[in-house]
Design goal:
The structure holds two protein chains of two kinds. By secondary structure, chain A is mostly helical. Helices cover 71% and strands 5% of the residues of chain A. Chain B has two domains: 5-236, P-loop containing nucleotide triphosphate hydrolases (Rossmann fold, 3-Layer(aba) Sandwich), CATH 3.40.50.300; 243-350, Nucleic acid-binding proteins (OB fold (Dihydrolipoamide Acetyltransferase, E2P), Beta Barrel). Classes of the chains: A mainly alpha, B alpha+beta.
Chain lengths: 300, 351
């Protein structure tokens, strides 16, 4: 009897323990999402907000635009290019953070146990400061009169400053910097569990360095690569501050475009439709990505 | 006897780190391992046997000396270009690959066509009796099965030399005995030179054609199991291989006088002065009384086929006798007996 009681109370406690998180999720995450989804199918208000009349105009305006004079319908090229740029920049950010993050994570994981905490601590330092301030700091480095250009001109390598700020390159630099720790940490966790003796086994069996990397190391740390890629790709896709500060007005990403609809654009249904679409794109790409990348690893 | 040499290590030295932190793992080791031989490097942990094996595999570069494989200098050739494969102590199986993929890994890296790889994998898996496990992942296998996969993986590329780094140490006693005869069978069937590292002297004696006994980075003795057991060159080897009684004494003519005042007949080979006599317990025979060295039974241990007697000699020193239990006459604690030792069974070692 005593054993049964203990077991039952453990189960009840377990449910209770997760209750605060559940409440938070329902009210702070799912609730607003539902409101956004509903707003996307309502009619746009006169200045902002929505009128409670069902309308497909928000979703229509995602892909098409109607000429204000003759009412002809055409593809909304601008919207599509913003979407495409967001996906492209997010994939590029993921690849860059992976290329920089793998050697970094490898370096940390191969340090003596004592000094690893120190290196991990260095990785987390950027989180101490506000994202906006850090982004302005990057701006200070890459702007025409900034540290980088001044140094290059003083060194005599260039005569004119290189225009980096307000380009896609600037956005990429900023996002790679901001999201690098999110790639390094899961990669580190995966490499930390990696059995380094397998590398010797690979060499012993006639594999070259590249073959050991591709055939032994990467497949085994794949869970870390997947986790890191998801952690970088998703926030990249919805990035707002970095493209806003470093990309200027022209090089918008989807996050800025959505903000525009709720602000200056005064088209809440379009903004809501874009937000919902972004959510769907993220969910679908997550599903596809995990499905494809875990195909050959039945143990994961 | 002019058997071709598979591995020829000449004056191998290996020093880790430099300055005052320097650790000498290998002093000056020279060794010739014949083709088709089952050669065992035997010694306590830290004696340098694994370092020597890793030098042959290519994971370590010796600080001095050179290693030749079938006459070719391979001292500075990387491991992936040496026709040598290793069975690792931890097995080091690739966890993301099936048994068949693990076994085929080496051949695939050598660029063999897929069809040839599949054929070789099937053949080697049959050799280690794992045909039915080809599609399993390593973690779905027992320790003994993983051991066989590690063996199959190292044998599949048909290396000139197979290196085995204490491969049986993780197995329980029964499985270890099985794998010992299995390894011996595989070595005979494939004809591949095996270099086996172990700290287990019994394992070394039962499996090897020849044994190299190592201690503190030095190779002390190389010989057949019979040589090593019957004629150890020094006290360390005698003590490490099997059980041995040591008696201190002084050479007097053709005899050695021990602490009790008794003189033992021995076969001398030019030794003079103070010597140590090494006597195997099974070479000590006991009689009720009479001629020979007088001793008193301090303790008896019944071991089934044999009985161990702990004998106290006149000068207070002890000697162990191992007597077949079925032989006539059993003795009890406190009995006074007489010890006889065959002169040819006594090894005379320098003190």
């Amino acid at each position: 009897m005593k054993g049964n009681g203990a077991q039952r109370s453990k189960g009840a406690n377990g449910w209770l323990l997760s209750a605060p998180a559940l409440v938070l999720l329902v009210f702070a995450a799912s609730g607003p999402l539902l409101i956004v989804a509903v707003y996307s199918v309502l009619e746009k208000g006169d200045y902002s907000g929505v009128r409670w009349i069902l309308s497909g105009d928000g979703w229509f305006r995602v892909l098409f635009e109607r000429d204000i004079f003759d009412q002809t319908v055409s593809f909304a090229d601008a919207n599509l290019s913003i979407f495409w740029r967001s996906v492209k920049l997010s994939i590029a950010t993921t690849l860059i953070t992976f290329a920089f993050g793998l050697p970094t994570a490898w370096f940390i994981a191969t340090r003596p146990a004592k000094s690893r905490a120190f290196w991990l601590f260095l990785i987390t330092i950027p989180f101490w400061t506000n994202l906006l301030i850090r982004t302005f700091a990057i701006m200070e480095v890459i702007r025409n009169e900034g540290i980088l250009n001044t140094a290059l001109i003083n060194a005599g390598l260039i005569s004119e400053p290189i225009q980096i700020l307000y380009t896609d390159t600037a956005v990429l630099i900023g996002m790679a910097y901001v999201y690098l720790p999110l790639m390094v940490l899961p990669l580190y966790a995966a490499i930390d569990r990696f059995d380094f003796r397998l590398i010797e086994a690979g060499y012993d069996l006639y594999a070259s360095r590249l073959q050991v990397l591709r055939g032994v190391i990467l497949p085994i740390i794949k869970p870390g690569i997947i986790a890191g890629s998801i952690l970088v790709f998703i926030p990249s896709l919805g990035a707002y501050v970095t493209p806003r500060v470093l990309g200027g007005g022209k090089n918008m990403m989807i996050g800025n475009f959505i903000e525009l609809q709720f602000g200056q654009g005064q088209n809440w249904p379009l903004g809501a439709a874009l937000s919902t679409l972004l959510l769907l794109v993220v969910l679908v790409s997550l599903l596809v990505y995990t499905r494809v990348s875990s195909r050959d690893t039945p143990h994961e | 006897m002019n058997t071709p040499i598979a591995v020829d290590a000449r004056n191998i030295g290996k020093i880790y780190a430099t300055g005052k932190d320097a650790v000498t793992a290998l002093g000056d080791v020279s060794i010739s391992i014949e083709k088709g031989e089952f050669f065992t490097l035997l010694g306590p942990s830290g004696c340098g046997k694994t370092t020597l094996l890793r030098c042959i595999a290519g994971f370590e570069t010796p600080t001095s000396g050179s290693i030749h494989l079938s006459g070719r200098d391979i001292t500075y050739i990387p491991p992936n270009q040496r026709p040598v494969n290793t069975v690792f102590q931890s097995y080091a199986l690739f966890p993301h690959l099936s048994v068949a993929q693990n076994v085929g890994f080496g051949l695939k890296m050598l660029g063999k066509p897929a069809g040839d790889v599949a054929k070789a994998v099937a053949r080697v898996l049959a050799l280690v009796k794992l045909e039915d496990f080809a599609d399993r992942l390593p973690q779905q296998l027992s320790g003994g099965q993983q051991q066989r996969v590690a063996l199959a993986r190292a044998l599949a590329p048909e290396p000139e030399v197979l290196l085995l780094d204490e491969p049986l140490s993780a197995l329980d006693l029964k499985l270890r005995k099985e794998m010992q005869s299995e390894l011996k069978r595989l070595q005979t069937e494939t004809g591949i030179t095996f270099v086996f590292v172990t700290h287990d002297q019994e394992e070394a004696l039962t499996m090897s054609n020849r044994i190299g006994v190592m201690s503190q980075g030095e190779l002390l003795q190389v010989g057949t199991p019979h040589d090593i057991y019957e004629h150890p060159v020094n006290r360390f080897v005698a003590d490490f291989i099997g059980e041995t009684n040591f008696l201190e004494g002084v050479v007097e003519g053709h005899q050695v006088r021990i602490g009790t005042g008794d003189a033992l007949d021995v076969v001398l080979d030019g030794q003079v002065g103070a010597v140590t006599l090494a006597i195997r317990p099974e070479q000590v025979s006991l009689t009720t009384a009479g001629a020979g060295i007088a001793a008193q039974i301090a303790e008896t241990t019944y071991l089934g086929t044999d009985t161990h007697y702990d004998l106290k000699l006149g000068d207070g020193s002890h000697i162990i006798a191992r007597v077949q239990s079925k032989s006539a006459g059993t003795f009890n604690v406190g009995d006074t007996v007489s010890i006889a030792i065959d002169a040819k069974a006594v090894q005379v070692l320098k003190s």
